Amino acid sequence: MKRFLGIIFLSLVLFFCEDKVSVNKLKSDIQLDTSKADNIIKTSRIQLIKDNRVTAIIYAKVIKNFEKNLIFADSGLKIYFLNSENDTVSTLTSEKGFIYPTSNNMEASGNVIVNNGDSLFLYTNKLLWDNKKEKIYTNDTVTIVRKDGFLKGVGFEANANLTEYKFKKVYAKTNKKRDR
Length: 180
Description:
Elements: H1 2-16, E1 39-50, E2 53-66, E3 70-82, E4 88-94, E5 96-100, E6 105-115, E7 120-130, E8 135-146, E9 149-159, E10 165-175
Antiparallel strand pairs: 1-2, 2-3, 3-4, 3-5, 4-6, 5-6, 6-7, 7-8, 8-9, 9-10
């Protein structure tokens, strides 16, 4: 019953709060005593909503709620980014993350991997999701692996399905020759 009430509380907070958090402010850069959570929920599912549409579904082994405006996802994070038809366009996995209920923005950190099926993989240590813009960002080093080669650079921005992306600075690039 306590788990059920916690899920309802988190869903209501995510749905009714307005945007007040900047995606440039990283909670992972500050110290947080994760043992002092207001609520702890195991094996959780959270939906991020924009304009009455689910933009992402977050699964975590452990969710810890803090200060009514911060949720810490610990012990394995998996996020499915959805398009307007509710199809999964990419999947993110990481060790942990922060969810900002007031904006539905999210930050993933620790061995972050994003893929859009089998054609493109993104590897980094930290990544931000801006729910309003439906874009991912990072100022960290990013490696993109495609079927035709790879790119490595610093600073990155992309749409949810990774079909449109740009680096601030690319410092390694290879293209494999295709067999004909």
